[in-house]
Design a protein that fits this description.
CATH architecture: 3-Layer(aba) Sandwich
Distance between the termini: 34 Å
CATH topology: Rossmann fold
CATH class: Alpha Beta
Number of domains: 1
Strand order of the largest sheet: 3-2-1-4-5
Number of strands: 5
Structural class: alpha/beta
Order of helices and strands: HHHHHEHEHEHHEHHHEHHHHHHH
Strand content: 5-15%
Helix content: 40-55%
Bound molecules: zinc ion
Radius of gyration: 21 Å
Length: 378
């Protein structure tokens, strides 16, 4: 991993490299971890084929129904908890669980200070119509600001504070309410197209603490960004299940948009962006583009082609206009808000989370793996 960035020039997708793309999806040569077979089809397309070979929505819907039946009415107020960004995926999760499967849902929204006005308006409409339990989590801005700064400076990314800052409260609310089901709209097929070099592992305690490096007192982090060992033990024994709803039901983006417009008068993002719920996501994409020569936009469009939700030609057209190769208008405001200079932002392009030690490299994970191996041998 270290080597990958030391030779940034080689990895960076040059024009020549980008000219050669997978014959089936649109991933370009130079994409991290990509290789082609003799017919010019990439390994990501092969992995997709393997993943969908056993896909059968009739069977998975029945499995989902069994899980929901088991948990319905089990605790006093709610049957399940979801994280709600205000984007189309989480809104569709809420719609399905509440309206179609008749679950009592507690929706937890994280206001990170960058929620787009468009997402806010959609959220209000949806929550008012469905009348579900709704909690907005806001962590104090000085702590968030400090974290965004630290992650950008040291790890070249700033999404972990939000991902952790929503996940820990979701688990906390689920456990307080005695709910064992947590749902997300993350799709194995459509979202996990990003290689590890793009995104850090979100709930990696060691990675998180190594970036923070003792600069923020632990008591400021507990309950919001960190769980104590006692809480982790309680979580492990309380059997909270974290499920991805797209693993069980069809996730057709065009159809989802149609349903949301029909049900809630859903407002589309005028620029048709993938993550229009967070204004900082453009900056994340731009940063990744500057580092690798393409961003999640290409990865996401390729995933849609693979899943036959877009034609290859449509995706190639969209890459031209949507890839994050232009500096976002919001960049200066964002940098001012978190207190980072232009120079520091430019320097962060050469940083990467893969250089920060994570749980896989720490002593207790090592001991755990060793114990597992010894146990297996015995
Ligand atoms: Zn491909």
């Amino acid at each position: 991993m270290e080597k990958a960035l030391m030779v940034r020039g080689e990895n960076y997708a040059t024009k020549e490299k980008k000219a050669r793309r997978c014959n089936r999806c649109i991933l370009p040569l130079g994409y991290p971890g990509l290789s082609f077979d003799k017919s010019g089809v990439c390994n990501f397309c092969k992995a997709y084929d393997l993943a969908v070979r056993t896909r059968n929505y009739e069977v998975s819907r029945r499995a989902l129904a069994r899980i929901l039946d088991k948990h319905r009415g089990r605790s006093r107020n709610y049957d399940c908890v979801i994280g709600m960004s205000g984007g189309k995926d989480s809104t569709y999760v809420l719609y399905l669980l509440s309206e179609v499967f008749h679950m009592r849902v507690l929706a937890v929204h994280f206001d990170n200070g960058f929620v787009s006005p468009y997402a806010k308006r959609n959220l209000e409409k949806v929550v008012a119509k469905l009348g579900v339990g709704f909690i907005t989590v806001r962590h104090d801005w000085p702590t968030m600001r400090e974290m965004y700064k630290m992650f950008l400076r040291r790890a070249g990314e700033f999404c972990t504070p939000c991902n952790v800052g929503i996940s820990i409260p979701i688990l906390k609310f689920a456990m307080e309410e005695g709910v064992r089901l947590v749902f997300s709209g993350v799709s194995r097929i459509l979202d996990v197209a990003s290689p590890r070099m793009y995104a850090s592992k979100y709930l990696d305690r060691c990675y998180f603490l190594n970036v923070i490096n003792g600069q923020i007192p632990r008591d400021m982090l507990h309950g919001r960004f960190l769980q104590s060992w006692m809480e982790i033990l309680r979580r492990a024994t309380s059997h909270v299940m974290w499920l991805k709803l797209p693993d069980y039901v069809e996730w057709d983006i065009k159809n989802i948009r149609k349903i949301l417009r029909r049900e809630f008068g859903w407002e589309e993002d005028p620029n048709g962006k993938f993550h229009a719920d967070c204004m900082a996501s453009d900056i994340k994409d731009y940063l990744v583009y500057r580092r690798w020569g393409f961003s999640d936009v290409t990865a996401k469009l390729a995933a849609l082609v693979r899943d036959r939700q877009l034609t290859r030609q449509e995706a190639l057209e969209r890459v031209k206009s949507e890839e994050a190769n232009k500096e976002p208008d919001f960049l200066d405001d964002f940098l001012n808000k978190i207190g980072i200079s232009r120079t520091e932002f430019e320097n962060s392009i050469d940083k990467t989370h893969t250089r920060i030690p994570n749980c896989r490299e720490c002593w207790w994970f090592g001991s755990f793996s060793l114990a597992k191996r010894l146990f297996k041998r015995a």
